[in-house]
Amino acid sequence: MAPIKWIFSLASLILFTAPALAGFSSSSSTNVAIYWGQNSLGQGTGPNAQQRLSYYCANTEFNIVPIAFLTTISNPTLNFANAGNNCTAITGSSLFYCPQIEQDIQTCQQTYGKSILLSVGGSTYTEGGFSSSALATAAANNIWTIFGPQTSNTSIPRPFGSAVIDGFDFDFESTVSNMIPFGQTLRSLMNTAQSSTGGKPYFLTAAPQCPYPDAADGPMLAGAVYFDAIWIQFYNNYCGLQSYTPSTGTTQNNFNFATWDNWAKTVSLNPNVKVFLGVPGSSTAAGSGYESGSTLGQIIAYSKSFSSFGGVMIWDASQVFANAGFLDSAVGYLGQAPQTTFSTSTVSSTSSAAASTTVTGSGTGTPTTSSAAASSTGPGLVNQWNQCAGQGWTGGTVCKPPYTCVYLSVWYSQCE
């Protein structure tokens, strides 16, 4: 096949000099990231097969899309499952050109305000990193020329053509070597580009497993690489969502969001890094850790109580969009006010279904409390499955008939 010729208008060259309309917000606790590209539900045809990227971006309930995966780095290759059917090989490389994805990245960014990240790794990544720091640095520079801002060098393979991603996500599932210089170089390149392109933000994220420290990303996360956010995979592990225990309040035995909050505040190179609650999008998206309904609501409420909380990550688009109501429910719970703020993971409290308690972490593990009778009035009647009580809750407390407010934990009651 003849080499692909890249011809771009002035409009396309300046398209991304302005900041994105929305996308990831480092000051928000209601971000939602959904992975796209792997068609993990496995449907080849029909409405539940993976659709093109822009189809999902039209949904307004999430703002970040890590597209998965760049499966090798040294000799870059991509795998987007059935979305790759619309791509053609680029002569002289192992990459392919994807005009549909090129168009969709631009549409997602400019029309729908999404932040589009390229996720590196995945379960099939087997390179193990790099044998030297020099090779890691060279690979980072190469990846940046391929997926970062376009240059005048037309010999560089550009799978996404004129489209420029908003950053990179690291999803390594096994131990990797010399990833610190790789991550540091990408971060430096993104910072330089941001300074020279009028402030277009670039982000670096990671998706560690919930056991701390993470076996794959641990060295990078140990104060070595500046990350904007990490989304913890609270599934397929003993510390997953299934280990959350409502009755224990703030003290959790295995579910360890508090541990990652402590990492954010005491270890992370970026003291303002955001920690996301990573969840499966359906019961078939993971071996363990899937939760829905009020249980998921309780976990989100608990996690949102920590100041590092940045939102929810969901694996993946094909799963969650086939699971009717899940995304709506998760976003609804996410939008509710946090119940309290903790500075430690050992704050304890007492409660009853008839009283609410406000708890403020003192930094020593000793809370101060104040109790008040549950109000029978509020800003309006509460719909089924929505919150109606809990520590710090200031919303409505009276359910629409015939539903009643059912106590589930110190943090959460809902209309059922």
From TrEMBL:
It is an enzyme of class 3 (hydrolase). Residues 1-22 form the signal peptide. The keyword Ribonucleoprotein does not apply. It catalyses: Random endo-hydrolysis of N-acetyl-beta-D-glucosaminide (1->4)-beta-linkages in chitin and chitodextrins. One of its GO terms (molecular function) is cellulose binding. GO terms for cellular component: extracellular region. Gene3D superfamilies: Glycosidases. One of its GO terms (biological process) is chitin catabolic process. It holds the Pfam family CBM_1. It comes from the Eukaryota. CDD domains: GH18_hevamine_XipI_class_III (cd02877). Its EC number is 3.2.1.14. Residues 356-377 are annotated as: Disordered. Keywords: Carbohydrate metabolism, Chitin degradation, Chitin-binding, Glycosidase, Hydrolase, Polysaccharide degradation, Signal. Residues 30-337 form the GH18 domain. The keyword Signal applies. InterPro entries: CBD (IPR000254), CBD_sf (IPR035971), Cts1-like (IPR045321), GH (IPR017853), Glyco_hydro18_cat (IPR001223), Glyco_hydro_18_chit_AS (IPR001579), Glycosyl_Hydrlase18_Chitinase (IPR050542). Residues 380-416 form the CBM1 domain. Belongs to the glycosyl hydrolase 18 family. Chitinase class III subfamily. PANTHER family: ENDOCHITINASE. This is chitinase.
